[in-house]
Amino acid sequence: MQYLALIYSADGTGPQPGTEEWGAFMQGYADAGKTYHAEGVMQGGNALEHTSTATSVRVRDGKVETMDGPFAETKERLGGYYLLDCKDLDQAIRMAALIPTAQFGTVELRPIMQVELPE
Amino acid sequence: MTSSAPDIASLIHRIMRDDRGRLLAALIRSLGDFHLAEDSLSDALERALIHWSRSGPPDRPDAWLLQTARRRAIDRIRKDRGLADRAPEIRRLMEEDEAERAEAAPEIPDERLRLIFTCCHPALDEKSRVALTLRTVGGLTAREISRAFLDTEPAMGQRISRAKAKIARAGITYKVPEPEDWDARLGSVLTTIYLVFNEGWTAGPGEAPIRATLCEEAIFLARLLTDLAPEDPEIEGLLALMCLSHARHGSRLSPDGTIVSLDDQDRKLWDRALIDEGLTLLDQAMARGRAGPFQLQAAISALHVTSDPPDWPQIRLLYDRLAGFNPSPVVRLNRAVAIAEAGAVQEALDELIGLEPALASYQPFHAALGEIAGRAGDITGARRALRTAIELSRSDTEKRWLSDRLAQLAPH
């Protein structure tokens, strides 16, 4: 079963680049990635640029409208994700707990919907 | 010989009370689907009512129900989802059916441990865990559960079906957790059961019957767990704790419905058998040498019932250890009460004042503060705290008890 692990944190709550903690933090991500590969759950994942670079798009009455900024302004921002193929939710929770940002932010696990598309 | 309809109805009622959880657990195990299992079991019960009234109950009503439910499930799968894509499932169900028919008295596998762990999965909201466990493992009706938790029946029904949908869609598997998850997952199960017990324990006189059912249900669930997962000291600890508390069930309210504090209770009204069971379980658990929060709480409860007056310095030490496992404000509140009872009133008061921000809307905090401030000679503070406690209380018996304490304070 596939899960999207959405990684949220508020600005300035985690280790900052250039500090001593930053190295350990990034190492934590490298270690998590290694475990995901070893467990065979890794399907993909990326860090995202800050929400200040986001563009929101919608189509109304056939017209494309673009807006500067994220869909919703929240204190905790989506900063990255993994796509994990796990045995069940228990394994997904164990994997999510390895994400260093979970120490100060929140990882939301969303099951990928099973849809049968018409052929 | 045919049995009369009322006989059959009461037989079915008894089976549902005693065996529903076991039958449902076995069905969910083979069907992998909560809803389908419940619907098929209902179908089987309807058929039982008709068939058994006509030709008498079978030798093994439980096995008959399981087999009928499984066949009904096959029909439902065929009808609902088309044969082709469900063929493997149907084949497996039919094999189970065959295998069972070959045996004279088929043993129904006890899959309730899986069921309990699934219903108490920490990915479900706490109230849903309670409702789902009572409904599926305990066999309480949605109506009984909604009455016990002061919720409407549709709201409770919705909560239960939302939880079942999450189990199906979020990949919560119907299994006993892996060793690395065992402690955390068991903690969630034990907490859920203890929540049921506590909900039953905080009863007013009008609510007494349904609330007592909750206490008994919680004890039933913990007993079941000690059978299904033997030699776990925390399960034994929880069961011991609930036995020791429930033993005092008959003496905690006076005839007019007011709460009688532990020290004033009539010990002759205590249930000796339950106390002995609790003490034996506690010894057994402690001998395993792996202390945990439920064992510590049971040990505290044991000291309350075995010594009169209770050994407060010893109780305080146990609370110190409990706070090490679980430094929550409520545990620290109870610890402060033990400190006061052990004689250090000022130390207790200082500790309580530090807890105020965290427990400002928690009624027992103000009740304890009122009591201890009174003993420390701060009558104004005691009055204020007791008045707040009365405002926050949701039970009439409790309000009455607190008003009595307020009246007993020396006038200023």
Any descriptors?
heterodimer; A: Alpha-Beta Plaits; four-stranded antiparallel beta sheet; 2 helices; B: 412 residues; mainly alpha; 4 domains; 19 helices; 74% helix; elongated
Written description of the protein model:
The complex is a heterodimer of chains A (119) and B (412). Chain A is an alpha+beta fold and 119 residues long. Chain A has one domain (2-111): Alpha-Beta Plaits, CATH 3.30.70.1060. Helix content of chain A is 24%, strand content 36%. Chain A is built from two helices and six strands. In chain A, the strands form two sheets. In chain A, strands 2-5-1-6 form a four-stranded antiparallel β-sheet, covered by helices on one side. Chain A has a two-stranded antiparallel sheet with strand order 3-4. In chain A, a hairpin with a 2-residue loop joins strand 3 and strand 4 (63-68). With 412 residues, chain B is mainly alpha-helical. Chain B folds into four domains: 5-109; 111-220, no CATH class; 231-310, no CATH class; 320-412, Alpha Horseshoe (Serine Threonine Protein Phosphatase 5, Tetratricopeptide repeat). Chain B is 74% helix and 0% strand. Chain B contains 19 helices and no strands. In chain B, helix 3 (61-81) packs antiparallel against helix 4 (83-102) and helix 5 packs antiparallel against helix 6. The model of chain B has no long low-confidence stretch (mean pLDDT 88).
